[in-house]
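Pasting as-is:
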Amino acid sequence: MNDEALNPTARRRVSAPARAAKRKSIAAKAEEWLNGAADGCYCDECIAQKIGTDDRRKVQATTIRLGTQNASSKYHGRCSLCGQVTLVTSINRNWI
């Protein structure tokens, strides 16, 4: 008899690829949210809140990386969500 039959609450083993598919990295979530967000510019704090993380540093690292790519920009501006004047990231839809 297997462990599951003896203990119905026992956890099943999940393969590493299946676990990875369930939990996206903060960078992947931030990039996905920005790509799906309405046109505008967003500060790292608001992006972090929208993707449900407290780790603003990882969001900042992602937006810095994105800001060097053709389809996005990082600059001083007003956040479209909170209204703060700070570093913001925007996606240029013409490049996508």
